[in-house]
Amino acid sequence: MSDNIFAEIYNRILSLFGQNVKDESKNTAVNRLRLVLMQDRTNLTPEIMNRMRSELIGVLSKYVELDKEALDLNIGQEGEQMALMLSIPVIRAKDEAEIEQAIKEEEEAKKAKENSENKEESEENTEKETESSEDSEEEVSSEEESADSEPSEDKSEDDSNISDDESEETEEKEIQEAPETKDEPKLEPETETKKTEAKSEKTKKEEK
Amino acid sequence: MTGRVIVITSGKGGVGKTTTNANIGTALARAGKKVVMVDTDLGLRNLDLLLGLENRIVYTIVDVVEERCKLKQALVKDKKNPNLCLLAAAQTRDKTAVTEEQLKNICDELKEQFDFVLVDCPAGIEQGFQNAVAGATEAIVVTTPEMSAVRDADRIIGLLEAKEEIKSYKLLINRYRPNMAASKDMMSKDDVVEILSAELLGIIPEDTGIITSTNKGEPIVNDDDSLAGRAYRNVAQRIIGEDVPLIDFEEEAKLSTKIKKFFSKFLNKGKEN
Prior knowledge:
The structure holds two protein chains of two kinds.
Chain A: H1 2-16, H2 25-41, H3 46-60, E1 64-66, E2 72-78, E3 81-87, E4 90-93, H4 96-129, H5 134-165, H6 168-172, H7 184-187, H8 190-207
Antiparallel strand pairs in A: 1-4, 2-3
Chain B: E1 4-9, H1 17-30, E2 35-39, H2 47-51, H3 61-65, H4 71-74, E3 75-77, E4 84-87, H5 100-110, E5 116-120, H6 127-134, E6 138-143, H7 147-161, E7 168-176, H8 178-182, H9 189-196, E8 200-205, H10 209-216, H11 227-240, H12 249-253, H13 255-272
Parallel strand pairs in B: 1-5, 1-6, 2-4, 2-5, 6-7, 7-8
Antiparallel strand pairs in B: 3-4
Helix pairs in contact in B: 1-11, 5-6
């Protein structure tokens, strides 16, 4: 106990002269604990975080061209609350036409999906109805399947053709939503693309 | 009589569950309550050592469960306080020797005869923990101001909250070092309470007297001069329902307070003579 008293007196005298003797390690402990508890308490496994990340990329790339490798998603703390920290390095902003195109495509994809789902449903219904006769059922389903798959195959072929011409970057992008939007800059005059490139460099610098 | 069944748990080992159990139990008994302590740490029993009862144990909880004796026969009375009893764990068996159901039945039977049933929980979150918690309706979560202990306490709190039978749980911060907390070299009680967002039952300062009292098999609450002993007595008072303020350790550490105390003691002795 006497040791403690002397240590305290020593520290007090030092603090009188305005000297901070130690770096305060307890703050480190508190911050580290908060982070680790956040991970413990939530059920956000790395797998789920990855899924969330890729879905976010899908949504965001409709509006901006982003550096997918550098996109950073983490759980953190904002005051009392848990927060998701998302840092998105933007390569360049897309112009209105591109965004509209992307949205249109998404809607179309949705419709196509809905249609196919409806078809599937109706298929199921017909299946139920025609459960007794297996032969006819098979015929129906196979026909409809082929009908469904044809247009989508066409699309993907188109995509691959175009992306072959393009830079490697777009090839890496395997997001379902709006892959075609990246074709647009090709059609634009070279000067414009250069401008946007310069812009992206600026934004990168700003981020740094 | 229907007593309260309180489980004392922590998740992490070595934070002072058993010490807390022995001291709170003794303090409650000193306050006139009938107390039984149940050691559920099968295979690693230690509560008997802290109470100095290791040589008096004839039957254990496993003997009760396996019907080699009646529950009453297995209860060991404390040396000093007739209000205090111990139901010891078996040293030669493991956690599978008793089931949740059996422990719940024992607790239910004991709370008919005692005001307090204090269940000493083993470390960990496995079957031993599940067993210990089975019969309890209240919990004391023991932690220290260290990261690993706080993290484990958080886990335990999560598990306790999932248990319907546990109506309330409170936090006991053990081995507290007021000096280190003041110099911000260690988490303060406020930090721990805030991180765990749990109700605080008490703070026990780090005290070398704990070691010497264990050596003697005599809980430190019986030492009227010890600060940790006083903190444990306060905790017992709070469990009973009295509103006792937390000890201001910084004030206690001041030389002036110590001198005052010394003289008041001196004067009191003089008056008695």
